[in-house]
Every structure is written in C-alpha cells, then in structure tokens.
Specification:
single chain, 193 residues, alpha+beta, 8-stranded mixed sheet
Length: 193
C-alpha cells in the first residue's frame, strides 16, 4: 500500500475539493478571511446577504476597499432584502432582536449612499417572490471563491454555519450557489436611495 488509509481519508476528491473550510458559526470565520478574499478579487465582488450589515463592522476599512475596487474596474454588487417587504417583517418577528432586519438593511444602504455614485457599484433588492429564498441563504462571492451561509430556522446570520468554497471545476457546489445568487440578482429591483 503506497498511501496509508489515514492519508487517503484526508485527501479530498471530486466536488469535495471545493470545500476549503467550514465554520459552525459565521461569526467563527476570522475577519482576515473576509479581508483576504475581498482583497484578492479583482473582477467581481458579490455580496448577496439579506442585510450585509456585518460587513461594515467585520471588515476593516470596508468602505475604502470597496471604493478602490470599484475605481480599479471591479464589479461590486449588493443584493439586499427589501426593508419594507413582507419577508423582512416576518423575519423580524422570528428573530425578535433589538437590531431589526430592516434596520440592518437601512444601515447598509446608508453606508452605500456614503460611498456616492461609483461606476461598477450596484445595489438591488431581491424580488418579493424571491425574498424567502434570499433570507434563508447568503452567498458572498469573491471571484472564484465564496462564503455561503445557510441560515438556520430562528437564528440570526452570525449564529448560522458558514462554508468557504473555491471553484475547482464546472457544476460543483461553487457553481450551484453562484447560479442561485445570479438568478436572484437577475430578478432583483434596483435600489432607489
């Protein structure tokens, strides 16, 4: 036997190779992971969390990074839930926390507004029919890497698990989540500040 079974058990094959790391909580993922992924992306950044609120507090100098990326030609997109939508109201009742879902969305919108008009920076609200699919799954893409949070029943985003994916080929987990977020984006409505 060339390779002992212990080594074989640790080698990833097939689509498993796309899973870089998993975290039991989104908040367990170090801010350096977010910063590194954002820094390395040069063509496309896509933040498809329902509120995206935590990015402004977790990623150091986030507004400046976004500005630099957009000015360098990187496409920067934010897909948000509608702060006045029915799914947002339902989620607020479920979470029952002081910092409501609609407040977190409005904080993100305020931060985006402070950036001013930037070529390459876009924001949309998920379509009403898609909002339930959006609130239950956050996909953050950085070129060929992604951080994905499947939201658990009554938990806020930072208490839900997170998967770090890296595209290894066509049709894998990365592509499936990327297609999901692109579909939501395609039906989204432009955010009107």
């Amino acid at each position: 036997m060339i390779w002992p079974q212990a080594v074989k058990d640790r080698i990833k094959t097939g689509n498993d190779r796309e899973l870089v790391r998993s975290y039991p909580y989104r908040s367990a993922c170090p801010s350096t992971v977010w910063s590194d992924l954002i820094s390395r992306a040069d063509a496309d950044l896509f933040f498809a969390g329902y509120t995206n609120y935590f990015l402004w507090t977790q990623v150091p100098a986030f507004p400046e990074i976004l500005r630099r990326k957009a000015e360098a030609g990187c496409r920067v997109r934010f897909l948000l839930g509608d702060p006045q939508g029915e799914v947002t109201r339902q989620r607020e009742a479920i979470e029952d926390v002081a910092l409501t879902v609609s407040t977190r969305i409005r904080i993100t919108l305020e931060h985006l507004d402070r950036l001013g008009p930037l070529d390459g920076l876009e924001a949309r609200f998920s379509a009403p029919d898609d909002a339930i699919n959006h609130v239950s799954l956050s996909v953050f893409r950085f070129g060929h890497e992604a951080l994905v949070t499947p939201h658990l029943a009554r938990l806020v985003g930072h208490d839900s698990p997170l998967l770090h994916l890296r595209k290894q080929g066509d049709g894998g987990m990365f592509d499936r989540f990327a297609e999901h977020s692109e579909e939501l984006w395609s039906r989204g409505t432009p955010e009107q500040a």
